[in-house]
Amino acid sequence: MIEFLFDYTTLRLIWWVLxxxxxxxxxxxxxxxxxxxxLLPFVAKTDIERRVAINTVGPVWEGNQVWFIxxxxxxxxxxxxLYAMSFSxxxxxxxxxxxxxxxxxxxxxxxxxxxxxxxxxNWDWALFIGGAVPALIFGVAVGNxxxxxxxxxxxxxxxxxxxxxxxLLNPLAIFCGLVSVAMLVMHGAAWLAFKADGVVGExxxxxxxxxALLAAVLFALGGVFISLGWFGGYEVTSPIxxxxxxxxxxxxxxxxxxxxLHNFQNMPLLWLVPLxxxxxxxxxxxxFRARKAGLTxxxxxxxxxxxxxxxxxxxxxxxxxxxTNPGHSLAVFDASSSRATLRNMLFAxxxxxxxxxxxxxxxxxxLWGKVSEKDIHDADHAY
Amino acid sequence: MTDPLLVELSRLQFALTAMxxxxxxxxxxGLSIMIAMMETVYVMTERTIWRDMTKFWGVLFGINFxxxxxxxxxxxxxxxxxxxxxxxxxxxxFGAPLAIEGLMAFFLEATFVGLFFFGWDKLSARxxxxxTWLVALATNFSALWILIANAWMQNPVxxxxxxxxxxxxxxDFIAVLFNPVAQAKFVHTVSxxxxxxxxxxxxxxxxxxxxxxxxxxxxxxxxxxxxxxTASALSxxxxxxxxxxxxxxxxxxxxxxxxxxxxxxxxxxxxxAIGIPDMQDKTTHFAIRIPWVMGLIGTRSIDKQIPGIFELxxxxxxxIRNGVPAYDALEQLKADHGNAAARARFDxxxxxxxxxxxxxxxxxxxxxxxxxxxxxxxWDTVPTVPAIFFTFRIMVACGFLLxxxxxxxxxxxxxxxxxxxxxxxxxLFAMPLPWIAVEVGWFVAEFGRQPWVIEGVLPTFLATxxxxxxxxxxxxxxxTLAYGTLAVxxxxxxxxxxxxxxxxxxxxxxxxxxxxxxx
Lengths: 383, 519
What we know:
heterodimer; A: 383 residues
């Protein structure tokens, strides 16, 4: 019937796509929560203004954050070697992300519990950190993955990371971090322009075009750096066995500075994705100016999707290249779970993901409309 | 070999973050169900007091839930961060329930919890009730999936080692889902969560009764908590976790350690009520034994024998010796994965591969192990008996005390006469008991599993990431500082919310409960 869906090669490709879907889902949903956190000190000055900003995300950020948690669980289940290598390798960076993210649930929930300016200012900073630090570090992580990461496996397949936190903070990686921050600030501004009534929404609509423009310019500049070979690149030099066992020690890989462009050169149609990654933020910038808040938010979502997809397409079939032992790099064909697990997880995803999208859409519909200062005064449950 | 200090610190960090996380989880489990019950009464009777109750307990639920979420984020990523070899070795099996937990439970819970708080004036009463029940249901789904994952660590069914990928891979996913240990654990853990919720509501209601405040809210909450608590406490005790303990050698070892049962006794074995287990002399001093009881608890029968520690160590020694040829075959397969003879030998012996790995504590290559090292490794399969023995008794004592508290409370709620003040004081002082019970309960389950991280498959000391000691010190200090600060803030907010009481309290025209405190 649909047997072809369940051969090992297809399953691996589907799970590579789903990995992208999860990362994009996380960035377009929780991304605007983080953007709002970063913008909080700039778009909202008084307490009531800040409460308006916070309450636009108050009822939904928790569900959005599950994209991140599911991302962790799905990488564990579908790409266990990637889960093991990346989180133990980026250990202290990951700790900073967790530390920042821990601040958010308590920041949202506890801020309005006490009527003290100092208390509330402290939580505002917590929410700022909870948005800015993960946004920056996720970008830095992508920047490192593009350049290759120093690791190898022992013959027991024990993951050994050879770098440290400061190695992660190289100029090109920080540049990628800035792309990520600009992108999420644009997204947060688009959300606020769409959901926040009054002065908060107006300030967001004024900051939005600058962030969107910056995101477009930085992303295009990133493309130039890739073309110049600054990020390097890796390609598989042995024959690829697409349905072979997931053992990353059975191939050879060579560093090749032009490798991240090969997929685009082989399939010119793919150029559309990075092209849209530049054009859509510009469209969002125009949308802010034209006061089309709904369209702006939509353009912002698609921008993020195209920017993230560009990275995945450039690296395919690589997922996590090793700079010190390129042959040990993790690739789509040798870092996945077994065929049975990929198939079982695909069943689970096919059942639950549509349900999730359905009830999430319903919740957003119930909460439809702008949040105003009056709403905050009237509701005893507001954050 | 991995630095033993690194292993100890990794275990310490996991224990700290997991046990801290589990301060909030059981209250979420119990309180969400109780809130949903209260709101159901409101929707059915349209008595506003029940909506006030739902909202008031909802505020406390929210304060607790925020920290449950905050500390839960750490748990999802800590396997990869601190236990990288574990993650590679068993991710194919262990990762799936975690991912499904996200798909089936976390999304549902987190998406609707926002509407629970923000949806009161946006939804009809029935729609809001549905939202509340979905949150309660989702927290229970979450417990189900994480316990399926945990149960697989205790009883790794439906999986086999694949020498091509050097890891465990799933062979029968249905067996993983319907793992009998998972079922025992789910019922026991969820019931314990309900007990936490009931004790919390009972204690705070009792506080209001003693102060003579919010009587309408407090007496109704007290009645619900007493009834729900009695049922839950009975369920925790009767459907105890030990029903899963006769399945595997390691589970039997845990049972033997809980009972400090050194020698195998003729069935049905006696129960050591109290005594002082001695790891050095391998005996229990001053033991007071009650005949038959152990056999009844452990096997639910009078004729099945429960093996003692000495017998289990002998079995472990045999399996270590069986595992060495498996290790040898695997080494040859690593050198040449086309070696058919080695593969055949591996397939015949692979069930005991994990036991050979126990030798890696003493010797890099288990094939070089001496007789003495094999005997040492066999004795390593015995967890620290006194620690397990005493913590298990603390848990059981808390359980029975709580059952007594609930039964007494229920007795007085059903009588017409005023309840004595000592009843409410007792309910108030009982509040820490369920948390003590669940924390030591997890200690028994997980510390009693040592030296294995996956029973019979992977020893804990091999499972960590290759991190620096300084990395671990930074994160342990960081988590302790962050979690400590949050704990202080959380408790203060909780106390402030309790002192403030409900936002509104509509006195019902006809009281359904007769409970009033004697003055």
